[in-house]
Amino acid sequence: MNSILITGCNRGLGLGLVKALVKLPKPPQHLFATCRNKDQAKELQDLAAEHPCIHIIEIDLNNFEAYDDLVKQIDDTTQGCGLNVLFNNAAIAYNEPNLDAVKADQMMNTFKTNSVVPVMLTIACLPLIKKASEANNSLEMGLERAAIINMSSSLGSISTNTTGGFFTYRCSKAALNAATKSFSIELLPDKILCVALHPGWVRTEMGGPNAPMEINCTTEEIVNTVMKFNKSHHGGFYQHDGVNLPW
Hints:
Shape: globular
Strand content: 5-15%
Number of helices: 6
CATH class: Alpha Beta
Strand order of the largest sheet: 3-2-1-4-5-6-7
Protein name: C-factor
Oligomer: single chain
Order of helices and strands: EHEHEHEHEHEHE
Number of strands: 7
Pfam family, one: adh_short
Number of domains: 1
GO molecular function, one term: carbonyl reductase (NADPH) activity
Distance between the termini: 29 Å
CATH topology: Rossmann fold
Keywords: NADP, Oxidoreductase
CATH superfamily: NAD(P)-binding Rossmann-like Domain
Radius of gyration: 17 Å
InterPro entries: Fungal_SecMetab_SDRs (IPR051468), NAD(P)-bd_dom_sf (IPR036291), SDR_fam (IPR002347)
Structural class: alpha/beta
């Protein structure tokens, strides 16, 4: 792929995805990595110093007015070639032991970051993604042409929810899944691949120290999985190894 934008790259899965992508035999020509505070993303800065393809974009994704500048930066850097892949990764979570612990402000914050931001950022980047798809009209659906990958969670699956808990996080990821499905229907004529992805339970700040999966191995597997996605995966919900998940 020529270009990819990944959100939430200061740590965790976002940073892991950046590391995995630059290890590819043919890494993206332009890898746009967002973070809220560049000064607090030292490891990302060190990677960018080593790999010129990495472009760090400092942005608060909750500030929708900043999206125009982000899109312009990408458009200027890719010199009108568009954006091949948008990977909506940034997310937050609150640990609620029971329903009584759910707070309205926390629920609103979670929905804004996990559901509203990916939708609004996708809309803002859509002209660039469509441009990339049109420029690669000889290619089939996939990341080399144009794709939107939304980092979801198995906790967003309604049909597999047998334990409850994680109320706000579950609701926000179920909403993101619904948005992904709707994007896939609307963007099918443009041949823009749209997929929801579950990374697994990973040892990140969000996943906690007891999670069984390690960041680097998981993100390398995610990259290998999504690189194989094609038209048959469009509008689907998959986990890190490509196994299809129920909504």
